[in-house]
C-alpha cells in the first residue's frame, strides 16, 4: 500500500485544495460532503452539530425541503434574466422585506453582504457628503468600500489607502459618536450587535442616541444587519427592539439560507438617492435567489422560528454561562458570544474533535450562530459536552 493510499479522504482533499485554490482563508478545517438540518458530515463519514451555520447563513440548516423545492422550481421555470427585466420573486421579496419593517422604502438586491454595503456606501455619496462615522471592531466586508468601514487593522493595512473619509469611534460610546459627527457627515454606520467582534451588544439607548445625533446633523443612519438580520436574534431585525428607524439597512447571510443574496434597503427619502445608472449588479436579485429568500422567510413564519430562536438562545446562554470558566455570555436569540480567559482557538478545536462546529471569533470570544432549526437534542448534546470541551482547552483532557 502506498503512502498516498493510506491517507484519509480528508487528507487527500486538503492537499488538493491547497494546490488548486488561492490561500485566502488558510487551510480548511474539514471537507464536508452533506448536511441535514443542523448536522453535517465530512468526507470520512464523521458527523458534526453545526453551531456556526456557515457564519449565520444557514437559517434553515442544510437541505431544508422548502428551500430545495423553491430553488428547484424557480430554476425549472425561469433562471437568470438580466436587469433589463424584472421577475415576480424579485418584486415579491422587496415588498415582503419592507412589510417586515413596516416601512416605506425601496430595495436594491446584491449577491452578498459586502456588496450590499458597497451599494449603501455609494448611496451615502448621493447626499453630497463624503465623511462617514463607523465603529471600532466593526466588520462590514472585504471589498474596498466595505473594507474602508471595517476597523480591523489586519484586514485593512495590506490594502490601504482605502476609499472614503471614515472616522472610527468606540462601539457604544455615545459621547464619542456625538463628537465625531458633523454637518459634513454623510452617514453613521452601526451593527446593532457586532458579530465578527464576537457578538458584542451595545449599551441600552445607544442606537436611539445615534438616531438623534444623525438627525442633529442631517446625516443618514445606516444599520448593517448582514449578520443579525432575518430572525438570527429572535426578531426579523436586531434593531427593532430599540424602537429606532434607520435610513439604510443592509442584509445578506440568513436572507437566502445559503443561496447567495444580499440587499440594501433605503427607507424614507433615502429610498430615492440611487437613480438609474448610479449602481448595478449582474446577478443580484435574480429569480432563484429571490425565490430562495421568500422560502426562507415563509418557513421562518410557518415554523415559528423567531420564537424558537429566542427560546433556544436563552437555553444555550444559560447553559454555557453555568461553567465558572466562562466570564460572560452575550447576544440575542441564536447569535451568541462566549467570553472566557481560556484559549478560544483551543476551545474551537476541542469542540470540533467532539463533533461540534463553533467559531473562535477573537482570542477572547467564541461565537455561535447555529441554524434556527437547531433541535433540543442538539442543544442538550452540546451543553452536555461543554465542560469536557473546556477541560480539553485547558489541557486537562
Please characterize this protein's 3D structure.
By secondary structure, this protein is of the alpha/beta class. Helices cover 37% and strands 18% of the residues. The strands form 3 sheets. The protein has a 7-stranded mixed beta sheet, sandwiched between helices. The chain has a 4-stranded mixed beta sheet with strand order 1-2-3-13. α3 runs antiparallel to α10, α4 packs across α10 and α11 packs parallel to α13.
Short overview:
By secondary structure, this protein is an alpha/beta fold.
Average pLDDT for all residues: 96
Main sheet: which strands, in order across? 4-10-9-8-7-5-6
**H/E element order:** HEEEHHHEHEHHEHEHEEEHHEEHEEEH
pLDDT < 50 runs, ≥5 residues: none
Structural class: alpha/beta
Q: Main beta sheet, described?
A: 7 strands, mixed
Beta percentage is: 15-25%
* Annotation field: number of helices: 13
Q: For the CA atoms, what is the radius of gyration? A: 21 Å
Helix content: 25-40%
Q: Say how many strands there are.
A: 15
N-to-C CA distance? 34 Å
What general form does the structure show? globular
Name the descriptors.
single chain, seven-stranded mixed sheet, alpha/beta, 397 residues, 18% strand, four-stranded mixed sheet, 13 helices
Task: Please describe the topology of this protein.
Layout: H1 9-20, E1 32-36, E2 39-42, E3 47-50, H2 53-56, H3 65-77, H4 88-101, E4 105-110, H5 113-125, E5 131-135, H6 144-148, H7 153-156, E6 165-169, H8 174-180, E7 185-190, H9 206-217, E8 220-224, E9 248-251, E10 262-267, H10 287-302, H11 305-321, E11 326-332, E12 335-340, H12 344-353, E13 356-357, E14 359-362, E15 365-368, H13 376-393
Parallel strand pairs: 3-13, 5-6, 5-7, 7-8, 8-9
Antiparallel strand pairs: 1-2, 2-3, 4-10, 9-10, 11-12, 12-15, 14-15
Helix pairs in contact: 3-10, 4-10, 11-13, 12-13
